[in-house]
Amino acid sequence: MRRHMLDIVTVLPHDQIDPQGIEHVVALIKEALAEKESVYSEAKWIQFWAYFRRIWIVQIPPHLWNVRGIDKRIVNRTNNPQERYNRELNGSFLTPRPNLANFVGVIEKHSHYYVTLLEDIARGRARAPVHGDYFVPPEITL
Question: What superkingdom heads the lineage (predicted)?
Answer without folding.
Answer: Eukaryota
